[in-house]
Amino acid sequence: MTHYYGVYSLLASLLPALGIFFIFTICDDLIFAELIKKHIPKEVVASKDYNFTIVLAQINNSVEGLIFGTPPQWVTNAAEIWISWIHKSQIITVIICISTALISGFLGYKKISGNFRSRNAVEKIVMSILAVSSVIAILTTIAIIFSVVFESIRFFALIPYDEFLFGTVWNPQFEGAERAGSGQEGLSQYGAIPLFAGTFLISIIALCVSVPVGLFSAIYLSEYATSKERAFFKPLLEILAGIPTVVYGFFAALTVAPFLRSSGSLFGLDVASESALAAGLVMGIMIIPFISSLSDDVINAVPQSLRDAGYGLGSTKNETVIKIVLPAALPGVVASIILAVSRAVGETMIVVMAAGLAANLTANPLDAVTTVTSQIVTILVGDQEFESAKTLSAFALALTLIIITLGMNFYALHVVKKYREQYE
Amino acid sequence: MNNINDLKSLELTVGDVFSKNARLKARNVNVFYGNNKAIDNVTIDIGSKEVISFIGPSGCGKSTFLRCFNRMNDTIDTCLVQGEITIDDENIYDKKIDVVPLRARIGMVFQKPNPFPKSIYDNVAYGPRIHGLSENKEHLDVIVEESLKRAGLWQEVSDRLESPGTGLSGGQQQRLCIARAIAVSPEVILMDEPCSALDPIATARIEDLIHELGNDYSIVIVTHSMQQAARVSKRTAYFHLGKLIEVGKTKEIFTRPQHHQTEAYISGKIG
Amino acid sequence: MNNKIITPFEASNKVKRSIAKRRAKDNRLKLYGRTAICLAVCFLLILFYSIFSKGYSGFFQYYVTLDINFDRERIDPKGDLSDNSLFDGEASKIVNESLFSIIQPQGRKAKKQAKKIVSSGKDVRIARMVKNDPSLFGTTTKVKFALDDDIDSFLRGYIKRETPESERRISNKVIEYIDKLNKEGRISYEFSDYILSGSASGNPEMAGIKGAFIGSMLTLSVCLLIAFPLGVATAIYLEEVAKKNKITEFIEVNINNLAAVPSVVFGIMGLAIFISIFGMPRSIPLVGGMVLALMTLPTIIISSRAAIRAVPPSVKDAAYGIGASKLQVIFHHVIPLAMPGMLTGTIIGMAQALGETAPLLMIGMVAFIVDVPNSIVDPGTVLPVQIFMWADFAERMFIQKTSAAIIVLLGFLISMNALAVYLRKKLERRW
Fold it and tell me: What does the pLDDT look like over A145-183, one tens digit per residue?
């Protein structure tokens, strides 16, 4: 097993160097941000509307060559210093990395001798690499929570949470607009009820489409269809799940919405050009395969012996399905519907493109409504004002979204698990 | 079994396949799974109110043949049944025959107890309900009670009819399944190794039950246990590799088998 | 027979009486099932039809053929074919003159309108032609130029001649000119050379998906390079190495939760962590790929674990039996045998990433970027985001181009999924 010696020295030299490289690349900006504070003139720091985040952004823009108007001289100076630091830190990083690689490689090499168990050493290293990569999942979760919770806390410091949760008017304004004295002072309102209501309305419409279609498809495929029909239709339904949501959004906005509008006017109904109905219908189509394939799975998990018992007593297929299979599969079916709802609640592109942005508090599916996800997108895409309640509100919305979807998911998985145990 | 002479000798069934007051008649029945022939040219009668057992080594096709009598094989796509099976001189494989009333007339009990995940009462009441057998609630109660009594389960469950059927012990579950089959008032009950999943005490109870039920119903029981066949049935049919080798009175089959295959099985040479 | 239970004869009569009704009920359920499937398939067909019928024509557009006099003095005043020199040249003027010589506009206003018939990309086209083939100088050659999008829409019949002039986007005069060009046989409907090789553009007739396509490929490569090794390593760790304890259980719970987190939240995380804290630039494929990698990680882990679990223990036992170490068993036996399943899961994850839009909007890949990105740190956009942006534009022609872009995207997704199915079929082992 001689090649393990080679692998060992390679790993020994490469890993520490790579680690140091990553730490340097990630940390340099943070360090620079601390260091640059010294280079901001005292009078700027002392001034009333000083905000370090904004100043930092100004300097960063200047570093990247994005210059809007003429920045003050001190910004340009700071940017120059920053650039010189970048050059220096690059050189330092390279030197440190190479020397670490050489030193650790040498140490590793020295360790190798006749009675050194290199296979075990390599094994240990590789195992720890595997372990570290599995931690990424935890890190991602932490990152998600971290990024959402902190900003949300800041939002709730500005806006009381009961106003956010129970307020019925959603009308975020940029603070700049307020300060500019456009007569809109204090008009900002962050009552998220219209967003929840819109999300709820669209999800309900989507369920009205997808539950009957998905459930009956699943029943047909698992109980009535011949194996040929099954082999043909099942993948066909799953295509629906593979279509990108932006395509559904396009379809909703440019085909379904105009169709609803024109057919609505035929009956004398006034359908908004961006209606909850169009978004909900298309979202319903999108989640059909979730319901059908998940229900199909749980229906198939009902043991054949129960069906046999039913048929042996002279049940028709209908009676077997309705009176035996479905009641037995009910928890699983409910769970699959809940999972589909959580899909619908978190779905973004369809509602952004087809449901509109008007925060109407309405139960009329022909009106335009807005949802939690579409507000997040509208607020966070494009120019943001740092620290404004409007920007922060997106994070609070995201937090609610995560809590809702994860709650539903937890519950559904719990139900499915219990249900599986019942038949194992 | 690689002896060619042996294979030839299997062509004819030994013993009396016919019965005087036959309820079910199978004539030249062949069953195919795709290209495999599972049952080869079987002819047999099953008499009224008689208990007959099908025995034979595993894979001999006895269960497959049993499932032909209430067309349970229909649920398997690749399965094809040829020949004629009649109940009261009506061919059950006739296109005009609906399987639903047929299966109501010919009940079935399966190898593994398979109560529905419902209450004990609902398990027994399921059949009468779907077939619309009861006039009213009181009548349904009577049917359920009587069925449970006949299945010898009433004393054990009369105070907890609303508790789930899946909560009973294995033997009780199997008796519940028998009660469920009886509740539909069938003429024939098919039993597919009804005791194979049960312990000896539960098995003994079921065997007693089968013995009693033989007074009212025709019962066909598939079993891999010769002792069981000897205990419960008056007639026995021995199957081997899809063929019906020998039929006769149980006593005679076990004491004086006519066919050397049967003899080999009885004496434990084939298993 | 005990009479408390109805006799078999009575029972059989009752069953017979109820049977017709029950059969009807049965057929009704079957019909509902069929209807549901047909509905779902109809939705699919309508979706595809509406996109293909619009998108098919998005690959084509109207061109006008003009005789261009390649005068080097005027096109390339410095004579060195440099970008500067070509920029200073009068290519547009030459095109306009050639156009005017056919349609003869009278007066300044008419000329101004006439100029707009040919797409504003005319000078770029001439510059590219002479760069590719300097021998064109001195000749007079027929060159095809894209028509302006309004003219294109008019020729396609979306802008109607009958509409009163005041409500039409093009004037009567322009229609007259187009008729004149048409009569001379100079207008042709051809496969668009912009849709596949052009980049984002405010002029719909010049807009193409090349930039977005390359952006997608760069983003996807980053995503693949991160997600595949990480996913496979995690799956191996959880299935083969880790002991079943609280920590691994916690990791599993995390993975399942991540699979349920809405994609837009991953975008928010990318914005807050990668861009705000790590200070990475916005709109670059590197960040996009990282976000998508974290998003697809659960898919890859879950399918890889299933693939590893499907490797029969007998194979592993055999290898352990001859003294192989855990690592050797994993790398020599488990991974090769589980590879098809892992690859299938990865391809499905990549298809998911290729179609994803919302998280990329969050990290600024929605910016209007004309240049084709050359590396993973150049600002760029991706196909689905391009589709999203185009769908928002008002110009009629963008609808066709959007649909065409969707066709390209769907084409890729379908071939990726087909590849996954093929791989699964081809490499499937039966134990």
Answer: 988 998 899 889 888 888 888 888 888 876 554 444 444
- For residue B218, the one-letter residue type is S
* Whether complex ipTM tops 0.95: no
| All structural domains of chain C with their residue ranges | 59-198, 210-427
Residue of C nearest to B143 (CA): C5
Three state DSSP letters for chain C: CCCCCCCHHHHHHHHHHHHHHHHHHHHHHHHHHHHHHHHHHHHHHHHHHHHHHHHHHHHEEEEEEEEEECCHHHHCCCCCCCHHHHHHCCHHHHHHHHHHHHHCCCHHHHHHHHHCCECCCHHHHHHHHHHHCHHHCCCEEEEEEEECHHHHHHHHCCCCCCCCHHHCCCCHHHHHHHHHHHHCCCEEEEECCCCCCCCCCCCHHHCCCHHHHHHHHHHHHHHHHHHHHHHHHHHHHHHHHCCCCHHHHHHHHHHHHHHHCCHHHHHHHHHHHHHHHCCCCCCCHHHHHHHHHHHHHHHHHHHHHHHHHCCCHHHHHHHHHCCCCHHHHHHHHHHHHHHHHHHHHHHHHHHHHHHCCHHHHHCCCCCCCCCCCCCCCCCCCCHHHHHHHHHHCCCHHHHHHHHHHHHHHHHHHHHHHHHHHHHHHHHCCCC
CATH number of C210-427: 1.10.3720.10
Between these two residues, B76 and A288, which has the higher pLDDT value? A288
Judge whether B133 is closer than 8 Å to chain A, CB to CB. no
DSSP string, A297-347: HHHHHS-HHHHHHHHHTT--HHHIIIIIIHHHHHHHHHHHHHHHHHHHHH-
Overall fold of domain B4-266: Rossmann fold (3.40.50)
For the cut 60, the answer to whether the pLDDT of residue B271 exceeds it is no
3-state secondary structure of A269: coil
Tell me which residue in A314, A316, A327 faces B184 most closely, judged by beta carbons: A314
Q: What is the pLDDT of residues A349-381, one digit of tens each?
A: 999 998 877 888 888 888 888 999 999 998 888
Q: Please name each of the domains of chain A with its CATH number.
A: 3-116 (no CATH), 189-422 (1.10.3720.10)
Spans of chain C, pLDDT less than 70: 1-5, 427-431
Q: Helices B200-213 and B170-182: crossing angle, nearest 10°? A: 20
**Domain spans of chain B, in order of start:** 4-266
- pTM score of the predicted model: 0.85
Mutate to test the interface with C, among B87, B129, B131, B184 (most CBs of C within 10 A): B131
- The model's pLDDT over B204-236, given as tens digits with 9 standing for 90+, comes to 989 999 988 898 899 999 998 888 999 999 999
Write down the pLDDT at residue C5: 66
The closest CB to that of C399, out of A254, A398, A413, belongs to: A254
C17 to chain A: which residues are within 8 Å by CB?
Answer: none
